[in-house]
Amino acid sequence: MNKFDRQWQKLAALARQAPAGDGSAPYGFATRLAAAGLAAPAEGAWPGFGRYARRGLLVAAMVCVAAVALNLPAVFGSRDDEVELDDAIVQVLDLS
Known about the structure:
Layout: H1 3-17, H2 29-39, H3 46-76, H4 79-93
């Protein structure tokens, strides 16, 4: 059992032992709860997610750089290459 499960089991056992009340929260309970929640940063899966997010960003950047590098001849190439390509397509699609 991990730390969270043990704490949850302990809290649940204490809650079962508590006497039945009228169901209303004490004065200022919501304020104390909100203050306690904002005071301590939550630890969980987010630090691990950040590691994977950085790796994903790195892979995406490498793919972008590779795409730009592979398409540079098309950007800086001569216009004659496109005309020859257009002629080949017209010849293939010319069915008449």
